[in-house]
Amino acid sequence: xxxxxxxxxxxxxxxxxxxxxxxxxxxxxxxxxxxxxxxxxxxxxxxxxxxxxxxxxxxxxxxxxxxxxxxxxxxxxxxxxxxxxxxxxxxxxxxxxxxxxxxxxxxxxxxxxxxxxxxxxxxxxxxxxxxxxxxxxxxxxxxxxxxxxxxxxxxxxxxxxxxxxxxxxxxxxxxxxxxxxxxxxxxxxxxxxxxxxxxxxxxxxxxxxxxxxxxxxxxxxxxxxxxxxxxxxxxxxxxxxxxxxxxxxxxxxxxxxxxxxxxxxxxxxxxxxxxxxxxxxxx
Length: 283
Known about the structure:
- 22% of the residues lie in helices and 28% in strands.
- The chain is globular and about 50 Å long.
- The protein starts with 5 loop residues before the first strand and ends in a 23-residue tail after the last strand.
- The longest helix is centred in the last third of the chain and has 14 residues, at 228-241.
- It has a single domain, classed as Alpha-Beta Complex (Spore Coat Polysaccharide Biosynthesis Protein SpsA, Chain A).
- The protein contains seven helices and 14 strands.
- The relative contact order is 0.18.
- The chain is α/β, with parallel strands linked by helices.
């Protein structure tokens, strides 16, 4: 593996018109290429994506019929000097901190790892002007960040649930699926170069109704479809908790904390003109 690694973002979205513009804008300077797989969105997501694609040559939009198809869009990077960065429509990264991480990846600082895991604030509240966010930190909650070193792979065969989930990876010598740099265990939220506001408990689409925090993730949807019993269990837990049971169990650990959200909601102007105060204070 050599220096000057390429960074490719892969989005998997469906009905994400509330945050998708910010999610993509925040990683434009971090990624050399951004692939967006839109799984049959019915809100304004498609319109927003087309507008972004028209302005930024590195962004390519693909329409898919099944989440598993999103893996097909990155499989050809296996065995190349490429970091694949999986981002969802409810994941808002700190763009200034990503600029520091990009330099580290390109000089090979993390080339001995298959995966890098970052810090997360799973948001339960975001104020109207998006200056303050409340929620649960990872750790102690689970981190869902997805940054994979495809140079560590020989193959990554299916079947897949979605991109970067499932399949049977085969590694070159010196790597396995546990070759992980757990940045979130070594670095505080304030100091992390890979930190994300995960707005998973907030409305993500203008077409959502009822309890908008109840959206199931893809793995829960897949499990619910496996049998009638699994479907009944999933719906019962959703009714009891008012939200995805998976998210409740994995993303709501520890105390509720409050942080400055302004570094995550800056208007994209390009790397050369960004001037972001990344200092964070715990309220």
